[in-house]
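Hi support team,

I'm opening this ticket because the web form for multi-chain structure prediction keeps timing out on my end. I have pasted the exact lines I submitted so you can reproduce it. The total is 612 residues across two entries, so I didn't expect it to be a heavy job. Is there a limit I'm missing, or should I split the entries? Thanks in advance, R.K.
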Amino acid sequence: MTVSSLKQMLVMPSFEFLTGFKLAIKRLCKEPLGLLGLILVTLIVGSAILAPWIVPHDPIAIDVLNRLKGPSAEHWLGTDQLGRDIFSRVLMGSQVALKVAFSAISLALGFGLLLGLIAGFGPAWLDHIIVTLFDTVRSFPTIIFALAVVTLTGPSLTTIILVIVVTSIPIYGRVVRTQTQALSAQEFILAERALGASMPRILGVHMLPNVIGQLLILASMDVPIVITIEAGLSFLGLGIQPPTPSWGTILNDGYLFIRNTPWMIIAGGIPLILCTLGFTFLGESLRDIFDPKLRKDI
Amino acid sequence: MWFFLVKRCGLGVLIVCLAVTALYLMIHSIPGDPASIILGPRATEEMKAALAVKMGLDQPILIQLFNFFKDVFQGDLGFDVFSQRPVIDIIMEQLPHTLILILVSIMWAAAIGIPLGCYSAIYQNSLFDKISAILSVGTIAIPSFVVAIYGLLIFSVTLRWLPAIGAGDSGDIADQLTHLILPSLAVGLGWVGYISRLVRSSMLETLGANHIRTARAFGLPERVIIYRYSLRIAILPTITLLGVGVGYLLSGALFAEIVFARPGIGKLIFDAVSTRNYPIVMGSVLITTILFVIVTTLADFVNALLDPRIRAHA
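Hello R.K., no limit was hit. The queue was backed up. Here is the completed structure from your submission:
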């Protein structure tokens, strides 16, 4: 880390969120990879939000006469085995991917925060129970756990989100727990306790602001992982169900027709790669700017 | 040390037990009773009742759970109705394929990742370092199943250089190896990035350590300092990473096996999910979980051996 960036971090008041945000954007723009990540993420989020208005064709309209066509002026990325416009499906797919990522991560973050605070601040026996639960959940490899759940409940959007939430709660919970334990030994928390502050007040007013920054960085780095899980499950036919477009289902269609046309695979895979790359570059740059210490914990 | 070992193994056993319980409860939360699912819609009430007694379904849930535990610890994971064979035999037949794939993937990834990280650390902030940093993040970010599909598209379908499906003839080693190239590329690519980043950061740490400075002051050749004194220590965290990462390896192997229609435990689980073959799904999930717990416990143990601070902490 350079001297100037150190100075900037020292000057930056951590509680003035807006100033911090402006500085982050400024510093992101100076780092080539951070800037690239920011651009990619803006593009993807923008197209996901605007998707319903900018799709050139109905993404689920079937046109069997024009099936498995290559790119043309009418269909920019060609058509799939049912004659649906792939470009429109890719655009709508970004919406599905981000919807899953946003809802799953915010739920996991919420529950992880709550359980982590309880484990870190509560009595030791409760801490042991929660940590063992975390370890148990983490002892299933994510995709294999997902397969087991899907066998029982059947594939759906809710199942994917549920699986991601359950398997990511421990990631957030552990960080919060460690942070809370470290904080509860500090003087300002002891002082609050001595003053007779209630538990909700200590946790909500004093602990939370100290943990939330790290959690948000973790969450931003979790986005590509979650999007990969959604696309992976949908690729296996166990996630998003047709006719709803998802990058994973487009890849699956392309995989089945790999000897007829390469276009579906290219169209389904490139946005997924750009998306994971964009969020990873952005997440890593944000972490380096706000919390270089976190680098060692992950 | 012994205390740590016992405690960590106890935790491992506890986790496996919890996992078994969770799996058992999950099987039993399926709508409809197992007897009528197995016998199909045309079974009479008497047939269902007879099978339920045979499977022990008429007993209280706690006793069923106890019997299930007893069976699992005796290596009996149930019976597959479709192929008329014990589940454990089917799993043990597929497991070696997955283990070979994982081993080969991790070996080539380490063979490239370790030197990459090592040189990046030696020539810190050079152009080489920067390019390798970007490549590392890139390979980590790209989903392994996309690598698998693109590999299939480029090398099997378009160029026709490499075989697309299967694991090769069982007697022909060269054939098996060519069938391993693409799957292990897909599984290992992300690990090149993980390993090189980890080796780079731990190498930077050791290169700044006191004993290295002493070695330099003694005028030892740079080559000896790097390979004999630094890399030997810097490589240790990679072992731990492998322990933690075996879950990712299994997930990667699952996708590679499905994309390349390779035999293995991932393909087994996937096919069983598609046909709703519960005993196979539960059996293979259980075996992978046990494998996972054993490897993470081993990694923790190796870590504690190497770093006394962890022992003291636990």
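A quick check on our side: Residues 199-235 of chain A form the longest helix (37 residues). Let us know if the file doesn't open in your viewer.
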